[in-house]
Every structure is written in C-alpha cells, then in structure tokens.
Amino acid sequence: MSARQPSAAALPALVGGVAAILAVGTFGYVLIEGWSWMDAFYMTVITVATVGFGETNPLSPTGRWFTVGLIFAGVGWLGYSFAEVTAFLAAGGWQAFASHRRNQKMLATITGHTIVCGAGRLGSALIDELQRQKVSVAVVDRDEAVVEHFLRRGLAAVHGDAGDDHVLLQAGVVRAHALVAALDDDANNVFTVLTARGLCRSSNPGLVIHGRADDPDSMRKLVRAGANHAFCPAHDVGHRVAHQIVHPTITELVGLHSRGATVELGIEELSGGRLGTVGVSLSEAGLLDRSDLVVLAVKRSDGTLVFPPDPKHVLGAGDRIVVVGRPESLDRL
Q1: Which DSSP symbol is given to 175?
Q2: Among 52, 99, 114, 155, which one is least packed by beta carbons within 10 Å?
Q3: Superfamily of domain 247-332 in the CATH hierarchy
C-alpha cells in the first residue's frame, strides 16, 4: 500500500489548528494568571514549541494544570502539522498547490472560451486542435488524474461531473462562447447539454453547444435538450473517409487530409472587426484583389449568406468572412 499523499486542501486546517491553540493558550494565561497579552502569548509559544526557557512568571496550580493540557494538545498538533507540511513539500505539493491557485484565477477570469466536457480520446484531440487554433479552453472531467494532466499543461480545468450545475458554473459556462459535451455516454451528454442550456438560457443565451452521440438516434435528443449541433463521430469519420475515396483531390485541397499532399489549402472564418474592415466594402478592404486568398462568401450578422461575395457589400461588426488560401497566407491575414 502506498503512503497517503497530503492534500493542499488540508493546509488551511493545519494552520488554523495551530492558530487556535495559540489563541486558546494566550487567552487562558490572561484569564487564569492575569498576565499581559504579550507575556501570555510568549508563554504559549515557548510551551508549544518546547524550547524550555522556563516560566515567564510564577504559575498558580490552576495555571500549571492548564500548561500541562496545552503541552499535550499543542505539542501533538504542532508535531503532526510539521510532519504533514514536510511530506506535502517533499511530494511536490507546493507546485501542485500553486498550480491549483493559478487554475482558480484562470477560471474566475476566463471568458469567450470553449468548455470541453470529457477529455477522452475525442475530447483530448479536440482540445489539442483548439489550442493549435489559439482558442481558450476549459476542461471538465471526472478523472482527477486527467484534470491534473491538463493543469500541468497550463489549461483551466475542473474536476467533477459535467452534469452538475456547480461544476459548469465553476468552468465559466455563463461567460463561455461554446461548450462541447464529449462524454462517453449518450445519456450523460444529453444531461450535460440540458444542464448547460438551463444555466445559460438567460445569462448567456448565445452559448453554442455541441453534443456527441454514439447512437445516431440520440442526436435528436441532444437537439431537443438544447444543443445547437449534434454529431456522431463514427458517422462523421465514415463520411470523411468516403469523401476522401470519392473526391481525393478536393479533400487534399481543403486540408481535410493533407499529409504528404503537395498543395494544402485552409478555410478560415474571420470577423470584420478582427480584420479591421468594419464600415468599408470588400472591394475597399482589398480582400478581393489578393492573389493568395479567395473570399468565398460573407455571412451577415442576421444570418443571411452573401454568395458569391458582392464587392460593394459593406462589412459590419457582426459579419463573418469565409476565406480560402494557403495556411501561411491565412496566418498573415
């Protein structure tokens, strides 16, 4: 059996216990012996620390019995606390404690992020891709070891059940841009979607929820529960592989399967505000004159699609521009 590892959560209790003993000892000497607060505190410290300096002032019989009790209680607790803190530091606990403190600060301030519920194979792959796309991510998982792994990677993470209101609120669901229910069980995904939509119905109605379903029949349940998009990994992978078989060149061009391909194109969706083109037309912004990029379409803030793109269309803050080009050109843009 491995030795029990001390927890960071126990540190406040240990410190609080020592403070309580010092307070009781100080008050006791003041009440019993009538000493000054300084003398009483000093006597308490040297008694608990067992340094053997002797009595500050002569003790009455009652004061001596009180000192005996203080020695048994104080020395025992101080020794236990010292052993726990030493073990905590030796096990790398301080780094873990600092990591958890950073995580709490991140969770309190993170906004516009994507919450990934379930960091299995699918969830982990999704997290890696979101990080590659420089999207802020918060992870929710029931496995404490998984949560610790993502904390070490510098991500915000919450240990708990994604269907729990408190857990989703801790992950900042009311400030998030999107949530992905990527758990291994369809029923849990439906319940997570239902919980998230209920929490954000008034406080964050724009939350975009994606729900995973292993059974295609569960996709309708996810949508009814409040998911904006439901997906079935097996169905999607099958569709992608079939598309690659039937249309290999198109698949390579748009980067769906580009390893080893001599030509690689990517598709990016950008906002007019991000490009600094709000209030000007596509033509004036110079987006239609570039040889390394092609503007495919513009989606207005009201949801209407401008296709093919109209050179005279004046871009608004909520407009989304769909652009295709080589990855390096998209990065420069």
Answers
A1: G
A2: 52
A3: Regulator of K+ conductance, C-terminal domain (3.30.70.1450)
